[in-house]
Amino acid sequence: MRFTAYVSGKVQEVGYRARVVDIANALGLKGMIENLKDGRVKIIAEGEDEKKIKWFEDAIDIKNALIYVSSIEKSYSPASGEFNSFGKLVAEGETDTRLDTAAGYLKELISAVNKMNENLGGKMDQMLSKQDELLDEVRSMNDNLSGKMDQMLGKQDQMLSKQDQMLSKQDQMLRKQDNLIIEVKYVNRKMDRALETGIVELKRDMAEVKSALKAKGII
């Protein structure tokens, strides 16, 4: 079977022909591919296996970072057998296979860079998300710590207040103790004076009793 296609879109000077050559050779097809002056690409592919022709037909509809196939005009006919392999027809002044290969490598490089940027963007989003989570945790820890510090300071104020109350009561007790000592000393002095007075009076009474007894001749 002979498959003929006229491919339109962004298909010239972007490595499209090199890709089609690789696909055709991988499938064991014979034929050629060339750039047309109207911007299209003409493809002729021949093979004995119709399934491979169908696979080839689907595979040349390429859309990626550099290549974009917008439409394909297709036709089928019996194979002519005029081709020994599948290759590219190069017109005068046209770039050769090496530049197409370089364009292919460039496409792969751009694709890899885009993928890397996408991955990097995703990782950056993950890092920023984790950073936000970490900041939230730090804020939460700070809030909890501030709350606990306030509680500790409140308890410390309560303890200091109780300590002040205890010191005040201690001062009151010391003042009462001083007053009690003064009163005890005052009572002791009064008792001493009363005792001295009683002893004097007792001695005087005893002296009067002795005088009376002597007067009566009792002693």
Report what the structure shows:
By secondary structure, this protein is α+β, with helices and mostly antiparallel strands. It folds into two domains: 2-91, Alpha-Beta Plaits; 96-180. It is built from three helices and five strands; from the N terminus they run βαββαββα. It has helices at 16-27, 50-59, 97-215, and strands at 2-10, 30-35, 41-46, 68-77, 86-89. A five-stranded mixed beta sheet has the order 4-1-3-2-5, covered by helices on one side. α1 packs antiparallel against α2 and α1 packs across α3 (97-215). The longest helix is centred in the C-terminal third of the chain and has 119 residues, at 97-215. The radius of gyration is 60 Å and the shape is rod-shaped.
Overview in brief:
With 219 residues, the chain is α+β, with helices and mostly antiparallel strands. It has three helices and five strands.
